[in-house]
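#data-curation
PF: Archiving a pair of folding outputs for the training set. Convention for this channel: one message per protein, sequence first, structure tokens after, nothing in between. First:
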Amino acid sequence: MRNVKSKTKKGVSVSKKIRIIMICFFIALLLLIIRLGFIQFVQGADLREQMYNQLIRSDLIKPKRGSIYDSTGKVLATSAQVDTISINPSDFVVKNGSKIDEEETKALKEKVSKAFSDIFELDYDETLEKVSSDSTYAYIAKKVEKDKVDKLKEWMNEEKIYNGINIDEDTKRYYPYENLASSLIGFCGSDNDGREGIEAAWDDILAGVPR
């Protein structure tokens, strides 16, 4: 009789444990469903807006500036493709689960800043300040030649760092004969707008139409 009672008590004890586990499981599942519902229906609109602000950046695509020729057809001023490097500082974050790893994030920002300063010959402290800023967008280098962009791409592939670094097409003005007739031809500003001479007088035609 004692063995039967002992087995009965053990059976009841196991049954209670199973019920408690099942109750805890359903409570956890219910809380998860409530949390998902709160995120989707209450916070959904704000989260979508934050995502769009991080992923979408609206920029005008500047056209390639027209060339200037002399009467014999020689090129006096022309534009060539270069690139502009910009960043999204908020993307330089290392997470450990759902939390930000402060040390790893700091090391990543320092590594990125060091690469930028070496490749583009920039001041390291100023570059680190940009990379560590709270802004959503910042310029690193404008009108960069292909060889430096290739170095950046090579570094990105080696370090497997892609997020937060933008390489956008741009154009740079070149004068094949340098200072020859420079007062007549004029020059362009950093935004490829004509400042003097023919560059300024015919700016509307040379500039093209942004898209």
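PF: Second:
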Amino acid sequence: MGWIFSPLGDRALVAELQSGLGSGEDWMRMAAAADRLRQSGLNWIVDVIPAYSTVTVVYEPSALKWDGHPVYSAAEREIGKVLAAPAAHWKNEESIFNIPVCYGAENGPDLTACALRSGMSEDEFVRAHAEASYQVALVGFVPGFPYMSGLPPRLAQPRHVTPRRRVPAGSVGIAGGQTGIYPLEVPGGWQLIGRTPLRLFNASRREPAMLKAGDRVSFVPIDEEQYRHLEEKLAAEAGSQPYSRSISNMAEQGGGMA
């Protein structure tokens, strides 16, 4: 099964497999391909961005040895060689995150409608969402936004026909059969069911995004008082701890978050 390449502007290309995989684990193959490219030693590669069924490669044309061929053709040839090599099964160094979420009310304005569409009470919907185990399939849309697999099928929801102009940072949403968290205040059309006080993206950190592909995520329901407490704690500790430790400490000290 070979790869198809398409140009994306004058310094990027998109790679996808010739035939659709049709598997819920497509993203794992894309993540494996991205890792191989990052480790290839091709110093003209600027960035590698895996998605569900494609890998986008951003490159620096002036650093690429094009040997008389068009720059894009040279990039496609060299990237094709890397992706054609036999690949071991991708295994990410995953982390496990327990993410506190205050569900409903102003933090989750769509919870009532979502529960109604699913034929459940709000409490049942929250319990089903929080009891599921999720895995980050990819990060995109805006910096640090995790698209997560593992949503129970009965919780699937349609996107809003008209997106909101402003979705608060930390909002937990559902769209189709996936759940995600808005890391920044941006427009968005996902159904909002709750909000976390955690900051999923911080440009001042060495690794700005909290979550990466392969990470495991569980949601831990908290009430409004706990939300405010953790929000204040985070503000006081901003930038002082790595993400995983910050979350672990909050899980231990949050009180009633188990």
